[in-house]
Amino acid sequence: MAFLADSLSRVKPSPTIAATTKAAELKAEGRDIIGLGAGEPDFDTPDHIKEAAKAAMDAGKTKYTPADGIPELKKAICAKMKRDNDLDYKPNQVSVGTGGKQILYNALVATLNPGDEVLIPAPYWVSYPDMVLLAGGEPRFIEAPLETGFKITAEQLDAAITPKTKWFIFNSPSNPTGAGYTRDELKALTDVLMKHPHVWVMTDDMYEHIVYAPFEFVTPAQVEPGLYDRTLTCNGVSKAYAMTGWRIGYAAGPVELINAMRKVQSQSTSNPSSISQWAALAALEGPQDYIDTSRVAFQRRRDLVVSMLNDAQGITCPTPEGAFYVYPNIAGCIGKTAPSGKLIKTDEDFTLELLEAEGVSAVFGAAFGLSPNFRVSYATSDENLKEACTRIQRFCAKLV
Fold first, then answer.
1. Which residues belong to any copy of the Aminotransferase class I/classII large domain (predicted)?
2. Which of 52, 115, 204, 260 could disulfide-pair with 171, CB 3.0 to 4.6 Å?
């Protein structure tokens, strides 16, 4: 009898965490490393949010809370959904979890049976397929190549849906590409979904507020009200308010689904951190000027990185609509030889050689389901980005 569960053999550790860990280890050894792998803002959490957390501790709000969130936070999430997305929800339609990842996982565990399929556009956030596998489902991928701006078409979605399809996971703006769907592009997808009433929609709107003009964010249930009763709209405070370590994600959807997710959470982690919940309340209800300030910085960094990477030999880097990632194509580098003498056969080879030769850490494209590419997070200082891109240019120039 094997000791470890068979289901664990279906999944792999997070490549993004692995890249960040490797960079930290090399730094600890004294190497000059610039890490472009972390998917989190480099800015500090706004002061008023930290003050709210301190006030909550001083007030003794350090005990268990309801399993999926305090009433005050659920009410604020409903107000946020109405304010930002024109979606009407009641507190009993809201679930708060320990980060956005737990919210997605709870929903999958609560709904998937063996053989159920989940459609995932590729490239995708690395955790989607593995969460589906852990929950007992089968991930099915729809490739969104560089030629379509890393976005799937309505025709692709329609062709991918089968009688076994239970969920469609939709992430815009995207991790890893930063690609965002316009209202018209999303309407074309929702028109397809309206033809298939057995398919539910799981949105990952975590980068909602990190978008660049003229792009305007919209979410599926907002574009097509007919999908409201089978859409789980997921979000969180991690990216918009630089609160990655606070671990608060949330979702709004049909009561039956929310109740099922609460049952899963009540028997796993129980409530999210009480202090983090009060901090998240301050984030949603307090001043929102931080969002605009950080967006300006991220857009400046995006433009810098896109320009410099497009000047690197063998690299094509499209301009993303949002998030803080670019996903350069390196087809022009594949088949060449690195200064070490190693042949660059894959995008993983490229990132490993880049780290070894120039001390730049990034995540290879195969981890996200689309090659030959690599992901660069520009959630770091302008100075680091200029130096990192200069090193990438130098590395590419030496490939023969």
1. 32-392
2. 204
Global confidence as pTM: 0.95
Domain edges within the chain: 6-44+290-397, 64-285
Which residue type sits at 246?
Answer: W
User: Residue 24 and residue 27: Cα distance in Å, rounded?
Assistant: 5
CA nearest neighbour of 286 among 48, 51, 111, 61: 48
In this predicted structure, what is the pLDDT of residue 184? 98
Average per-residue pLDDT in the chain? 96
d(CA 355, CA 262): 43
Single-letter amino acid code for the residue at 275? I
Give residue-wise pLDDT tens across range 48-99: 999 999 999 999 999 999 999 999 999 999 999 999 999 999 999 999 999 9
Q: Which residues of the chain are under the pLDDT cut of 70? A: none
pLDDT at position 254 is 98
pLDDT of residue 1: 84
First to last CA, the chain: 52
pLDDT of residue 353: 94
CB 333 within 8 A of CB 312: no
